[in-house]
Specification:
Elements lengths: L1 H15 L11 H11 L5 H13 L4 H13 L3 E2 L12 H7 L1 E2 L1 H14 L4 E6 L2 E10 L3 H5 L1 H12 L11 E3 L4 E5 L20 E4 L5 E4 L7 E2 L4
Parallel strand pairs: 1-2
Antiparallel strand pairs: 3-4, 3-7, 4-6, 5-6, 5-9, 7-8
Helix pairs in contact: 3-5, 3-6, 4-6, 5-6
Length: 227
């Protein structure tokens, strides 16, 4: 009950302060450059956090990403950047303090995903940045439809809460790559997207510093389909 109350409070706070990020204030190249430096997934602190998860769940990818999500979501405290100036804190710092705004959260989550042996990316849209985790390429409809079942199963065995989600939200790239939303709007991975406007421009930044400017919400890429 205590965790539930804290979760509801955190959701309320995050809805009031979705994030101070605005990629309009700097070029995509500069944004990608700074975020790459901040995603220090080889740092000992990031690796230590990943090892805690791997020791608990050495084989199950869904359990790992749920545990990573909880590690940040349940401990995170929103903090605006000082003096209204955009600042990207290193993942190692954020995983010690569990404080920051939306881009710090996204950087920390993606770094943790990479340290776990997977992959992720930071997605920037208008005034928000959020993390996505790579699930695979050309995944079957059966597997994708089972994502809510697998995520619910994790929370049923760890917290006793069942049927927390009915739909997993993800983007699918043109090459078939599937990226699950790991944003903080709800208390489990695969929550609804903050922005589903088909005309919204995204900057997608990968851990190696490569980036692309694209429209992730165009027809056929956002699942479930936006209304």
């Amino acid at each position: 009950m205590k965790i539930l109350k804290l979760t509801v409070l955190s959701i309320f706070i995050l809805m009031l302060f979705p994030g101070s990020f605005s990629f309009a204030s700097m070029s995509p190249e500069r944004t990608a450059e700074y975020m790459k430096k901040a995603m220090n997934y080889t740092d000992s602190i990031v690796i230590a956090k990943a090892n805690v998860i791997l020791q608990k769940y050495p084989d199950n990818k869904i359990d790992q990403l749920c545990e990573a999500f909880d590690m940040l979501y349940l401990n995170w405290k929103y903090r605006s950047d000082p003096d209204g100036k955009e600042k990207f804190y290193k993942a190692s710092t954020s995983l010690k303090t569990f404080k920051g705004d939306c881009d710090d959260y996204a950087i920390a989550m993606v770094s943790l995903m990479v340290a776990l042996g997977g992959n992720g990316r930071v997605v920037c849209v208008i005034d928000h940045a959020f993390p996505e985790v790579y699930l695979g390429k050309n995944l079957s409809h059966g597997y994708l439809d089972s994502l809510p079942v697998m995520i619910n199963a994790h929370y049923a065995k760890t917290s006793g809460h069942e049927n927390m989600m009915t739909t997993a939200h993800y983007h699918k790239d043109a090459d078939g790559s599937v990226w699950l939303n790991m944003d903080w709007w709800e208390y489990y991975p695969g929550s609804k997207f903050h922005n589903t406007d088909p005309d919204a421009e995204h900057i997608v930044i990968y851990p190696d510093g490569t980036y692309e400017v694209t429209f992730l919400n165009k027809t056929g890429q956002v699942f479930p389909l936006a209304n």
